[in-house]
Amino acid sequence: MSLNDQLKNFKKSQNASTEISVKRAGQATAPTNDLKRTFGSISNNTKASFDGAKRKKKSTVYSQPANTGTGQHAMSQLYTVIQFLKDSNHPQSVVSIASRTKVDISKNPALWEKLVNNEKIEYDSVNNMFSYKPTYQIKSKEDLLSLLISKRKEGGMDYKDLKDSYSKLSSAVEELAGEGVILVVRNKDGNPRVLFYNDAQYNTPIDADFKKMWSEISIPDETDLPKALEEAGLKTMEVFEKKITAEVKPKRSKTRHKRIKITNTHLSHIDLSKDYVPNAKK
């Protein structure tokens, strides 16, 4: 074999080995692409995408029964009717209740009795109408503002106590808060917690320099707060816990009954196996 033939064979073997290594590399990188598709990229890992993923998960419900209406149980039907009346701002007739809730209370005497005697339901026997009896009579945001004004000396009002009084309470609160006529203390999730009337006479103007000084004051961390108070010459509030000590009952000594062997030595001369026969009188 000539030198040229050997050179050609060498090039063929090199090309074949290169093709094999490329195929193996392609097979090895395939799982990497799968991993990228599975986990996604960091740029998509935002709160919006996380909330969207939560909503997507919540939209799929497994192992749940189909919606079969209001149910056949009396308490379930009673709850459905009361909830309908609660969401309605006007009294409702028996026909209206039946058409909206699929519960015909006229054909169920027990349910009718429970509904009429419910403390949160008002029944108009003349017009045969039912209505929900809220804790406070609120029909608009103006009614809510008037209520907060009347209660301003008692402090704020709990949002939970007002929820059953007005079906559009949330939107009314946000509108009044946007207008600046009420003050809202909110939970961590942003939902209203306590409502206050914003009395304008207490809105004292504050100097801009004082606001700047106030905002520049750094609040120590919770762990460093006691030390910072001590350095400022202040004391933390001491909480004394009352220890409840259980009454120690005195232990009663156990009385032990000793076994005593009794021997009737003074009756040894009498045969006790025989019946007693008294001596005849002489």
Automatic annotation (TrEMBL):
Superkingdom per UniProt: Eukaryota
Intracellular or extracellular location(s): Nucleus
Region (Disordered): 1-69
Skewed-composition ranges (Polar residues): 1-20, 60-69
GO biological process, one term: transcription initiation at RNA polymerase II promoter
All residue ranges annotated as the TFIIE beta domain in the record: 62-139
Main location as per UniProt: nucleus
Pfam families: TFA2_E-tether, TFA2_Winged_2, TFIIE_beta
GO MF, one example: TFIIH-class transcription factor complex binding
GO CC, any one term: transcription factor TFIIE complex
DNA-binding among keywords: yes
Known partners and oligomeric status: Tetramer of two alpha and two beta chains.
Similarity-based family: Belongs to the TFIIE beta subunit family.
Function statement: Recruits TFIIH to the initiation complex and stimulates the RNA polymerase II C-terminal domain kinase and DNA-dependent ATPase activities of TFIIH. Both TFIIH and TFIIE are required for promoter clearance by RNA polymerase.
The protein's name in its UniProt record: Transcription initiation factor IIE subunit beta
Species in which this protein is naturally found: Rhizopus oryzae (Mucormycosis agent)
